[in-house]
Amino acid sequence: MKTEFIPNNVFLDFPCGICGSYYELSFVTVALHLDDGTTISDVCPMCLEAGKTGLEERAKERIRLLGEKMERANQMLERIARIDHFPTLQEYRKAEDEAYAEAGFGTVEERENEDAELDPSAKQDPSEDPVEFLLGRKK
Ligand SMILES: [Zn+2]
Q1: pLDDT in tens, the chain (139 residues)
Q2: What is the value of pTM for the model shown?
Q3: Distance 62 CA to ligand 1 centre (A)
Q4: How far is the CA of 111 from the centre of ligand 1 (A)?
Q5: Are 18 and 55 in contact (CB under 8 A)?
Q6: CB within 8 A of 129, min separation 6: which ones?
Q7: Of the residues 41, 71, 72, 85, which has the maximum number of CB atoms within 10 A of its CB?
Q8: How far is the CA of 16 from the centre of ligand 1 (A)?
Q9: How remote is the CA of residue 12 from the centroid of ligand 1, in Å?
């Protein structure tokens, strides 16, 4: 296995393949390759700081944390079967709307009208092509 510095122009938070931490990509990233050249992961600056000797500990810690997450997910799976009433999305939206109204933010319709007044472009004609709309090339 080998590493390589590769140029980058996508500045998003990205998960490190070794420790799983999200980090902001820079103009250069370190890619970890299999011997056949297949890229298997990028490596975060914290793993670089840990050095080759610290990588194993960081990978073990990730495995431990993933194990905890998997255990919680399995517990959730067991609990799902015991849920008496699971709300529908419509029930949730109704409760959400009531909570907003109770907090003084108005109904969904009032809030949407308020948003449209603040940003008229937010109220998009659904018949328009969204890409053309975003590019400002309305028909
Ligand atoms: Zn890392």
Answers
A1: 777 787 777 778 889 999 999 998 888 989 999 999 898 888 999 999 999 899 999 999 999 999 999 999 999 999 999 999 999 999 999 999 899 888 888 877 888 888 888 876 655 555 666 666 666 665 4
A2: 0.60
A3: 9
A4: 42
A5: yes
A6: 139
A7: 41
A8: 5
A9: 15
